[in-house]
Design brief:
- The chain has about 325 residues and is of the alpha+beta class.
- The protein folds into three domains: about 90 residues, Pseudouridine synthase; about 130 residues, Pseudouridine synthase (2-Layer Sandwich), CATH 3.30.2350.10; about 70 residues, Roll (Nuclear Transport Factor 2, Chain: A).
- Helices cover about 20% and strands about 35% of the residues.
- The chain is built from eight helices and 19 strands.
- Strands 1, 2, 3, 4, 7, 10, 11, 12, 13 and 14 form a ten-stranded mixed beta sheet that branches. A five-stranded mixed beta sheet has the order 15-17-18-19-16.
- Helix 1 runs parallel beside helix 6.
């Protein structure tokens, strides 16, 4: 007999506005306890010193986490000139200092080289595993860590403010895997200066933005009076860029049992058009979201005129 999970079968997304000095895992734990949820996870770690959007999945929404991890993100951050730190943020020990204060115009000009697909070396103080251990654990132990460059994408990067000579504020839109601290490191090097990230806020992850976010304090106070499921966004919210197909009751039942369904020719043509690659070379994806009665049934793969379920939602 399967062991019964502790907690309630709560499913959906919470768009948390994470406060400063709180780890992502700690934030997930507090939200899970607030809802007494059986399962919880998050889509994209935020450093304790960072604030902003931390999407937290409860219950069946955890099955959609891999899709949201791939989503584009927006970061607003401030670089403080004059000192480089070991972690490239204000938490690390100062490793170098400089009197150079780049102008906002110089920063904006340098930023142009960061837009597009670039090779970025992650900072040593990161969660990347090296020989089975977290890079930040090795760095904190004083070991030299050399991480390989990774191909990342930055769609937009611009200067948004320069409150004084010692600080410059920036905003970027980027794909997955981008380290803001590495941008600060590389910008400072390019401009012959020393600098580190003094503040960092994530304002968007895929379809989730600050206008949908709730604070942890609000959430816990609300749940003290009993879990309010109205603040939960639907499981499929994280899948807004995946074409959806409404299926019949019979087909929904088949998919829920893990069995494929046969598509009508017109359904195949419609989905092919929606899944087509922008350059017209074929299909950019074969992933389809099956819906019934406005509720997500399963994530499927379309092949040979059929939809085969890859992840089934038990909502």
């Amino acid at each position: 007999m399967a062991r019964r999970r502790k907690g309630d079968p709560v499913s959906g997304w919470i768009v948390l506005d994470k406060p400063v000095d709180l780890g992502s895992t700690q934030a997930v734990g507090r939200v899970r306890r607030a809802f007494n949820a059986q399962k919880a996870g998050h889509a994209g770690t935020l450093d304790p010193l960072a604030t902003g959007i931390l999407p937290i999945a409860l219950g069946e929404a955890t099955k959609t986490v891999p899709y949201l991890v791939e989503a584009d993100k927006t970061y607003c951050f401030t670089i403080a000139w004059g000192a480089t730190t070991a972690s490239f943020d204000r938490e690390g020990a100062v490793t170098a200092t400089s009197d150079v204060r780049p102008s906002p115009e110089a920063v904006a000009d340098a930023l142009k080289t960061f837009v597009g697909e670039i090779q970025q070396v992650p900072p040593a103080f990161s969660a990347i595993k090296v020989d089975g251990e977290r890079s930040y654990d090795l760095a904190r132990a004083g070991q030299a860590v050399e991480l390989k460059p990774r191909l990342v994408t930055i769609h937009r990067a611009e200067v948004t403010d320069a409150p004084d000579a010692d600080h410059v504020a920036l905003e970027i839109d980027c794909g997955k895997g981008v380290y803001v601290r590495a941008i600060a490191r590389d910008l400072a090097t390019m401009l012959g200066a020393c600098g580190h990230v003094s503040s960092l806020r994530r304002t968007r992850v895929g379809p989730f933005s600050v206008d949908k976010a709730v604070t942890l304090e609000f959430l816990e106070q609300m749940c003290d009076r009993g879990p309010n499921l109205e603040v939960l966004l639907p499981v499929e919210t994280a899948l807004d860029d995946i074409p959806a197909l409404a299926v019949t009751t019979e087909d929904a039942f088949r998919l829920s049992q893990g069995r494929p369904i046969v598509l009508l020719p017109r359904q195949v043509e419609t989905l092919k058009a929606r899944l087509a690659a922008p350059d017209g070379t074929g299909l950019a994806s074969r992933t389809v979201l099956a819906m019934h009665g406005g509720v997500a049934v399963s994530i499927c793969e379309m092949r040979a005129g059929q939809l085969s379920p890859t992840r089934v939602f038990n909502t």
